[in-house]
Each structure stands twice: as structure tokens, then as C-alpha cells.
């Protein structure tokens, strides 16, 4: 488990707010116990990806605050070692998240999606 390189994908699947896709519609702020990762401004269809390994104690946690420019905000855990280390191994060691107008969806196979965190 400790040597596996996991991949987190978060895609902005929110609707366009303007005809041009040049305005960020989603802002993500990521934190782990050890790191405060920068604020990410995402345009529609942008995919934010990063890789990591589970720590020795198996307590790895990556949390996000998602803010949609339509005024909605939601905290979600993109990776919790105790919850995700096995379920995310099914599809290339990936946890896949899709931010949509009704919530934040999870998939571990890129075809079946569950609205895990409604707005």
C-alpha cells in the first residue's frame, strides 16, 4: 500500500457562465495535514491532477474547499487513506472527482458516478 502512487483528478464540470470559457467558475483550496496547497482557479472542463503516496501511518488526508462562482461552497475530502486506499486502486490507482451543478461526484472507474457531496 505504501509504495502505490495514487492519482487524484478533479474536473470542473460546472455549466458555462459566459459564452467564452475564459473565466474561472470554480475555486479549489486544498490542504493536507502537512501542506497548504495553493488556491486553484479552474475554468469549465479544467482537470486538476496530483500524485502522492500514502504515509507510513496510513493517515493521509487531502481536503478541499470548493467555491462555485454561483455562490455555492462545499468542503470535501478528496482522499482519506482509510476510505480510499483500496477503492481507488480499481482504476489505475485513481480517485476521480467531478464538480457539477448539483454536487461533487466520485468515481473509481470513470463510468459510474455518485453524488458524494451535494451542494
From TrEMBL:
InterPro entries: Self-incomp_S1 (IPR010264). The keyword Secreted applies. Belongs to the plant self-incompatibility (S1) protein family. Keywords: Secreted, Self-incompatibility, Signal. GO terms for biological process: rejection of self pollen. Its main location: secreted. It is found in: Secreted. The keyword Secreted applies. GO terms for cellular component: extracellular region. This is S-protein homolog. Pfam families: Self-incomp_S1 (PF05938).
